[in-house]
Design a protein that fits this description.
The complex is a heterodimer of chains A (267) and B (253).
Chain A lengths: L8 H22 L32 H37 L1 H16 L2 H12 L3 H27 L3 H8 L4 H9 L4 H24 L11 H8 L7 H28 L1
Helix pairs in contact in A: 1-2, 1-10, 2-3, 2-5, 2-8, 2-10, 3-5, 4-5, 5-8, 8-9, 8-10, 9-10
Chain B lengths: L2 E13 L4 H6 L6 E13 L3 E6 L5 H9 L6 E6 L5 E3 L13 H10 L9 H14 L16 H13 L5 E5 L7 H18 L2 E6 L2 H7 L2 E6 L2 E7 H6 L4 H10 L2
Parallel strand pairs in B: 3-7, 3-8, 5-6, 6-7
Antiparallel strand pairs in B: 1-2, 1-4, 8-9
Classes of the chains: A mainly alpha (267), B alpha/beta (253).
Chain lengths: 267, 253
């Protein structure tokens, strides 16, 4: 009675793009063709060639190497952001949804307030208080991402908490925490996975936006957003400088969007 | 014989759950609904008691109150069983869709603490025995609920309740979601388990024929009131209330 799962075309394309991206990111962690801070004054704004696959930036640094490294930075920030948002969101959503009552009212109203601010604005406020830097951006975006997860998980718990199988678990004497995390939580996974993937996309874009504004990853370290920001002066003299980091952002987001889309359709 | 359950002048009200603003505007008590009205009955240990009534007459509310799921009520409920169990109407909602059957059946056994604690092998053994007892193949342990039929699921639900070592079971319309041949099988299974294990069963149904097969005594309920109760034979032969007569006529008994 083994079920055969037909994967949608979206899912396959998404998986391929994401797979390639992950390989590039891993490569960036292990090895880059050039040192990302090494400047070559003879190759300032050099066009793409076999030597420099994506050309060079205004300091003569290899863009391909910097893109690899930058993708890694963007990716880790996005993953950490989603992890903070999802873990806290699941905890808040699970408890408020399952128990309800005044705790639910209070936490959900706070949630609404946080939700009302655009995540970038919230992160800007956070960064202006605690200073710039990679880890502050992660913390700021992570907090901004909690409400959307909390809301989704809460809705799922409200749906499931009065199901007959939860009632019979209660009658069997299963403790509340076990009911929440072992009996109900796995059933929220399909919905949760989709929102994690969508959240990941938003996090990539938010990180790029933050670095573009100059409050994320600090130079000389690279991130896709900061590269995009530096490249805008040379948009006409060296269009490849802007094109490749931008393309990578698009591909990362597209890959995960297609994965999320295919995933929801499958469920 | 000793009673296992005594219910004395039980009254249950439902308050419509409204937002805070509406609650403040409204005077208290206005939106209450009287669901159970002075319900009193006893149930003997080892008895199968039928509870018959139309939809919305308060049968399930009574079951919930007995199981302690309905916290607010007036009156007395005395139940001589620490872990009452329930078999639900919809077999498609009563098993956790994300867990395998074996896991679901082991769950009550995992809850045993202290000296009653069972090892993994002991749990598996008890689950296997119980599967045989409810007439199912041991291979089903590796399947998910979605792969089982309604009748199989209801047997699993019964097995799960029995694995809690209970001696009091509420069966809330356990067969109304099943087709007729499967209904008969489940009824036979419940009667067999009743004989073998001596459990007391409160059998809720709207089907008078099924109740006739299952039960020793029967209660007829309407609009939250118990109209009559007594031996099944007597009630069916000599109905006291007009409503019971109506039900019997409709069922063609």
């Amino acid at each position: 009675m083994e079920k055969k799962r037909a994967y949608s075309l979206n899912f396959i394309i998404g998986a391929v793009i994401t797979g390639v991206m992950l390989v590039l990111i891993l490569t960036g962690f292990i090895h880059t063709p050039y040192d990302i801070t090494k400047m070559d004054s003879t190759a300032k704004l050099a066009a793409p060639s076999l030597e420099h696959l994506m050309g060079c930036d205004n300091f003569g640094r290899d863009i391909f190497s910097r893109v690899l490294k930058g993708m890694g930075n963007t990716f880790t920030i996005a993953v950490a952001t989603v992890a903070i948002g999802a873990v806290c969101g699941v905890l808040i959503g699970a408890f408020t949804g399952y128990f309800g009552g005044w705790l639910d009212e209070v936490l959900m109203r706070i949630n609404d307030v946080v939700f009302a601010f655009p995540s970038i604005l919230l992160a800007l406020v956070f960064v202006s208080i605690f200073g710039t830097g990679k880890y502050n951006v992660v913390a700021a975006l992570g907090i901004a991402f909690i409400p959307s997860f909390a809301r989704i998980v809460r809705g799922e718990f409200i749906k499931y908490k009065d199901m007959d199988y939860v009632k019979s678990a209660r009658l069997a004497g299963v403790p509340k925490l076990r009911i929440i995390f072992v009996h109900i939580l796995p059933n929220t996974m399909p919905v949760l996975m989709s929102s994690i993937m969508i959240g990941f996309n938003n996090a990539v874009l938010a990180e790029a936006g933050m670095s573009y504004l100059g409050i994320g990853v600090q130079p000389p370290d690279a991130s896709l957003g900061s590269m995009l920001s530096e490249s805008q002066t040379y948009l006409f003299s060296a269009p490849w400088y802007a094109a490749f980091p931008g393309l990578m952002i698009i591909l990362m987001v597209l890959g995960f969007s297609l994965l999320a889309d295919g995933n929801t359709k499958r469920v | 014989m000793k009673n296992i359950l005594e219910v004395n002048k039980l009254n249950v009200y439902y308050t419509n759950n409204e937002g805070l603003a509406k609650k403040l505007k409204r005077k208290s008590g206005e939106s209450r609904q009287h669901v159970l009205k002075d319900v009193s009955f006893d149930m003997k240990r080892g008895e199968v008691l039928g509870l018959v009534g139309e939809s919305g007459c308060g049968k399930t509310t009574l079951a919930k109150a007995i199981l302690g799921m309905q916290k607010q009520y007036d009156g007395e409920i005395w139940l001589d069983c620490p872990n009452p169990q329930m078999v639900f109407q919809d077999p498609y909602a009563s098993l956790n869709p994300s867990k395998k059957i074996g896991w679901i059946l082991e769950e009550p056994l995992r809850m045993k603490k202290g000296s009653d604690r069972l090892t993994k092998a002991e749990r598996a053994k008890r689950v296997d025995e119980m599967l045989v007892r409810v007439g199912l193949d041991g291979k089903l342990k590796e399947h998910y609920p979605a792969e089982l039929s309604g009748g199989q699921r209801q047997r699993i639900a019964i097995a799960e309740a029995l694995l809690c070592d209970t001696d009091f079971l509420i069966a809330d319309e356990p067969v109304s979601a099943l087709d007729v041949t499967i209904q008969a099988q489940i009824i036979r299974l419940l009667l067999k388990l009743h004989k073998e294990l001596g459990i007391s069963i409160l059998f809720i149904s709207h089907d008078l024929r099924v109740v006739y097969q299952m039960c020793d005594r029967v209660m007829i309920m309407k609009n939250g009131v118990i109209l009559e109760q007594g031996n099944v034979e007597e009630v069916y032969r000599n109905p006291f209330s007009d409503y019971t007569k109506l039900l019997l006529d409709a069922a063609n008994l």
